[in-house]
Amino acid sequence: MTPSLRARTYLVTGGGSGIGKGVAAALVRAGAFVAIAGRNADRLSAATGQLSSAAPGRVRAVPADVTVEEDVAEVVGIAAQWNGRLHGVVHCAGGTETLGPITQIDSDGWRRTVDLNVNGTMYLLKHAGREMVRAGGGSFVGISSIAASNTHRWFGAYGPSKAALDNLLQLAADELGPSWVRVNGIRPGLTRTELVAPVLELAPLSEDYRINTPLPRVGEVEDIAHLALFLLSDESSWITGQLINVDGGQMLRRGPDYSSMVGPMFGEEALRGVVNT
């Protein structure tokens, strides 16, 4: 059963594609007004057109870079002013610019990844938190990753920055609870989006995911969206500070083995930290 979020207003970052777009579509089906934010204006425009076909006037695009605090403050303000208040946020914007052995990580890419996943989350919690406190409450859902809890070798800054995101979500839940603002996180496993298409096409890697997932299928964006809507709804009104895996049970086993992808890029010796200079 889809929770009713009719006439409520939500902000979804990273809403132009992937999990963010899937969450936005689910919110529209639940009757909500949805502001989608992201860095790619063309992608946002295309997503808005698709989502609005089923809900004219209930979806709007606001280009914004979550690593720029001024952008975050502006997009939160636009969403809050749209219908008088902001009921909640689903923060999907994130990613990584680092792939490879830790001894060969590009330090600038590391900093940009931490900026995106950690600082962007802090800016959004800071400004959306203010709006939801003023409104008497709300719900913030951050999209993390199984990489926050299970080591993903050669993923560089991604796992550590998602672990920091998780801690930040719990800190905000602890601080904002007295103002009836709930903060929770979702840790997706391998989920079918445009970004993971190369993983699904590489047979050894795809098979490694399968054998390490008790429920042996790939996740779909709807799997994440269903939980996000529950956490936004009144049905979860006594749930905060939780980090919930939606990964088919993979957290019970181990992270993926990316050697079949990373090995040919860097060499087998590099995978154990050898740097030839």
Automatic annotation (TrEMBL):
<dbReference type="InterPro" id="IPR057326">
    <property type="entry name" value="KR_dom"/>
</dbReference>
<dbReference type="Pfam" id="PF13561">
    <property type="entry name" value="adh_short_C2"/>
</dbReference>
<dbReference type="InterPro" id="IPR036291">
    <property type="entry name" value="NAD(P)-bd_dom_sf"/>
</dbReference>
<dbReference type="GO" id="GO:0016491">
    <property type="term" value="F:oxidoreductase activity"/>
</dbReference>
<dbReference type="InterPro" id="IPR002347">
    <property type="entry name" value="SDR_fam"/>
</dbReference>
<keyword id="KW-0560">Oxidoreductase</keyword>
<protein>
    <submittedName>
        <fullName>Short-chain dehydrogenase</fullName>
    </submittedName>
</protein>
<comment type="similarity">
    <text>Belongs to the short-chain dehydrogenases/reductases (SDR) family.</text>
</comment>
<feature type="domain" description="Ketoreductase">
    <location>
        <begin position="8"/>
        <end position="189"/>
    </location>
</feature>
